[in-house]
């Protein structure tokens, strides 16, 4: 199709990246200074400053349990779905797994030191379900798991860092998959409710920010529509899996996740909130969809893509039902909420967590024929980063994820309008570098692209806040390079470099930049006076 010229545009963007890299390689320090001053002259000289955000604004970093902890069989931990999935040949790009990852289970104090050096006031991390409940509700609480997270929570609080806890970030006890098919069964709601309550009971005296789920829209699409995440279920033409049904199962799974969220919020409100005084929300992967052309059809296509991606989870929580676009296309394949479910959903949430990385163009495939994008659900849209040979942003290490700083303002303003300006936290935002085993820290530490990425996204986030968006925090993804799911160790998102052979951590330029910003330095795009004098 005529829109299929994305690879060429990608190539062009890669070419200019190569030039940048060549310039940097020329003479590391002089090269970097050159790039810094080039950046200075080509960009609008915005002076981003900590004081443009409320003093109580949470500025943090994020991590997730399976991606960093390792110690996968230690201290009575049960196997998780990711432990099993990553051990099956062909599932992970480089054949790696999270058995050791960053060895954070043993090195968490060192990593908390890195956070202290950054000067963050909050830390977003997740709890490994199978470390706390190795057999779900069919076994006991593992005290060693509780002890580990108590040590983490107490260590960060002692350093003035607020815990922002994700109850579930992709990893679930394998036991629940084996017993009843995990998210495909209503049984999982009881298990999730039990797990959430164990967490509130054990940690809620100190944890004031909870999110029930990280990116349920990724769990459903990647695990049950494309099949690239556990349990690797899908059907043709979405993917080539042994089991699954891509136009049915993602919606059953989503339904059980939404009602598990509602159950946890209900438990928290009824039994813990008064005593513990915290807030509870959910985190959604929130890509922005921009109409490819200024036509009614493409404008509706972009809305439909948002519906099948994000309103899917948030509309039921706010309005008690799925968006009309999903009803129209899915018909009886979309589960329905009973009156009891709707009653439970009235607990809603206290805040929306937004993981924002990228934006894409959306083209209508209902009224004109085009290649429907299977990774965007059954929305009947084609998505592309390319408009008339022009990329929507600059490429990053993750294919299809262009850096599009204005996208964060669009998403935040959209959430503000649709969900009554409910408090929002940017729970993830970050930049990836492609890596392989023959590259070293030196190849990655001068990450000017990541500095510019964070600077530009914060600038547009601040613009949304000035327009009245109720955004209360921002978490850079991520503290340290980690096990990046199906990409294994081939993508690096860290403010700190990790050598996975030695477990050495090295702060990148971006860590120094973020720390200067948080300490209140005036910082223009990648060129704080502090940075140029230091480099
Ligand atoms: C689909 O998977 C089957 C079984 O693993 C394999 O034999 C077949 O070649 C695959 N087809 C495609 C199109 O990848
Ligand atoms: C998926 O489920 C729907 C509804 O039951 C059914 O019509 C369709 O044939 C199924 N598709 C596959 C690939 O099994
Ligand atoms: C889209 O088209 C409408 C009507 O044709 C026009 O008023 C509007 O300015 C256009 N928007 C953009 C972004 O081009
Ligand atoms: C790793 O990446 C570098 C830089 O892109 C490349 O030159 C090298 O050939 C790659 N090595 C392997 C083992 O893939």
TrEMBL record:
GO terms for molecular function: beta-D-fucosidase activity; beta-galactosidase activity; beta-glucosidase activity. Keywords: Disulfide bond, Hydrolase, Membrane, Signal, Transmembrane, Transmembrane helix. It comes from the Eukaryota. Pfam families: Glyco_hydro_1. Signal peptide: none annotated. PROSITE patterns: GLYCOSYL_HYDROL_F1_2. Gene3D superfamilies: Glycosidases. SUPFAM superfamilies: (Trans)glycosidases. InterPro entries: GH, GH_1_N_CS, Glyco_hydro_1. One of its GO terms (biological process) is carbohydrate metabolic process. The chain crosses the membrane at residues 21-42. Belongs to the glycosyl hydrolase 1 family. This is Beta-glucosidase. It comes from Rhynchospora tenuis.
